[in-house]
Amino acid sequence: MNNNENQKEYAVEMHHVSKIYRLKKAGKESRPDDRYYALRNLSLKVEKGDVVGILGTNGSGKSTMALVLAGIADCDEGSLTVNGEQALISINTGLNAQLTGEENINVKGALLGLSKKRIDEIKEEVIEFAELGDFLYQPVKKYSSGMKSRLGFSISLALDPDIFIVDEALSVGDKGFANKCLERMEQLRDEKNKTIFFISHSLQQVSEFCKTGLWLDAGELMEFGDIDEVCEHYSDYIDRYNGLKNADKKKERDEKFAKRLIHVEKLTLWERIKRVVKG
Amino acid sequence: MFKSIAYVIKENINNLYRIFCIAKYELLADMRDSRFGLFWNFASPTIQVFTYWLVFGIGMNRKGYDGVSYLPWAIVGFSVWWFIQPCITNGCSAVFSKINVITKMKFPVSILPATVVLKEFFNHLFMMIIAFVVVIAFGFYPNLYWLGIIYYAFCTFMFAEALALITSVLTMLWRDVKKFVVSMMRMLLYLSPILWPAAFSKKNWTFMTYILKLNPIYYLVTGYRDSLLFGKPITAHPVMALYFWCLVIILFAVGSVLMYRFKRKMIDMI
């Protein structure tokens, strides 16, 4: 730790990060696939212990952002430095419908890379937190979807990374459970001083929970700063957009789409092979 | 290249418990699918062996090879085949079938081939029990040479792992790889000494016997039979052993390079 106050420690540093997806061309045109900016030229620094709420409309790149932050997807341009271990909280991933709730704690625990000892430690807590009760020894396929999500989410919480990335995790389950999760996350935020990235469509949740806001639009960074300001600007934007006529909405969407598209010149087979070999 | 090999080995060793758990629970989930679960692990190979024995042993009147009756001779071969065959076909989709996991959490992709092979290895243990029963019923009693199958099972494991490393990544690049591999499997069955000794005695065709020996499965099947039936030590085929291990190391190196190169790109290849 550097005690110099001017030099804060950053959990995440992004320099001109872009993520490019490939679009399959329609029909049998002979030109190569178009590229598409899922994220474009993001530069930001997030301090350790910060709680960042990521806002944006559908398709603005929030989930891609989560994948890049979690280290699951590589960025195509720019550089990303992450100090500490990061984990994406995924809910229904890794649950096996044939197995019982108890076995699934082992399965998902192992998938997440927990040791056997650690899994035994957390088991009680998970059962308690997920409110499984008598369903513990039933196969997961018989669970209600809310119950499944509760189980999945509680196991994920047992991880102890430095950076949490929560993508729409709280939109499952009923209000009671969402509050319970939020409480747990607040505990992580306040007591363990974890860095948290929080993605949610609920503006209210975000503004209550987060310290910093990050607004993505069409893959670009619109605003990064104090949560209340960002929330305000974002909701203004949403209101304005929703106030538009349908034709105008479509026009705006098309414009944004066109801005994110990159046309690629045609490569010969040999050039493509060279590109694959070089990476 | 050495960096990627070290990376793959390290990641696999660091995640031994994870590999074990995934394989174990996949197997368990398979069994839960059906009412009789474990029973089928014994029943379906038995039925298949019975079919082949009826057709080749009785119908075509094969007397067996090298002084061993056809049934024990074939069942040892089959026990290897049923280890390798699902390893190869499922190995192709090792990564692809776990797409929901690797796109949703940070996951060491390079351990996936090992989980597939380990799961099939558990199945192989069931199959070996059947093979032991049949072999003993035909008067081959356990002796020290039987320990050789531990070595040959390890060989099979490493070969399957090396191959699955390659095919799992290639399947992510081109889905057709799996289709190709699956359609080649029947050919591979007959090019391996499982139902017959894979030896050509017809004039001008004897060279084929040598070509078939280039098939690494030849070494594995021969090894299992040497240990269980013929009482030969594991050092019986030094040249073939050398060739086999060179091949495995090359395959493993290629697989590691592919895995290392594409590990972070998998998500873009869905």
Describe the fold and architecture.
- The complex is a heterodimer of chains A (279) and B (270).
- Chain A has a domain at 1-85 and 204-279: Rossmann fold, CATH 3.40.50.
- Chain A is 41% helix and 24% strand.
- Chain A is built from 9 helices and 10 strands.
- In chain A, the strands form 2 sheets. Chain A has a 6-stranded mixed beta sheet with strand order 5-6-7-3-8-9, sandwiched between helices. Chain A has a 4-stranded antiparallel beta sheet with strand order 4-1-2-10.
- Chain A is globular, with a radius of gyration of 21 Å.
- Chain A starts with 9 loop residues before the first strand and ends with a helix.
- Chain B has 270 residues and is mainly alpha-helical.
- Chain B has one domain.
- In chain B, helix 3 (38-59) crosses helix 6 (112-137) and helix 7 (148-173) runs parallel beside helix 11.
- Chain A binds chain B through residues 21-22, 67, 70-74, 86-88, 90, 93-94, 96, 98-99, 103, 106-107, 109-113, 115-116, 139, 279, and chain B through 15, 17-18, 21-22, 25-26, 28-29, 32-33, 100-108, 261, 264-265, 267-268.
The outline of chain A comes out as globular
As a whole number of angstroms, the C-alpha radius of gyration of chain B is 19 Å
Q: Percent of residues of chain B in beta strands?
A: under 5%
Largest sheet of chain B: none
Helix- and strand-based class of chain B? Answer: mainly alpha
> SSE order of chain B, as H and E?
HHHHHHHHHHH
Trace the largest sheet of chain A across and list its strands: 5-6-7-3-8-9
Task: Kindly provide the name of the CATH class of the domain at 1-85 and 204-279 in chain A.
Answer: Alpha Beta
The topology string of helices and strands of chain A comes to: EEEHEEHHHEHEHEEHHEH
Low-pLDDT regions of chain A: 1-6
Mean pLDDT over the full residue set of chain A: 80
| Number of distinct beta strands of chain B | 0
| Main sheet record of chain A | 6 strands, mixed
Number of helices of chain B: 11
Average pLDDT over all residues of chain B = 88
> Helical proportion of chain B?
over 70%
Taking Cα atoms only, what radius of gyration of chain A do you get, to the nearest Å?
A: 21 Å
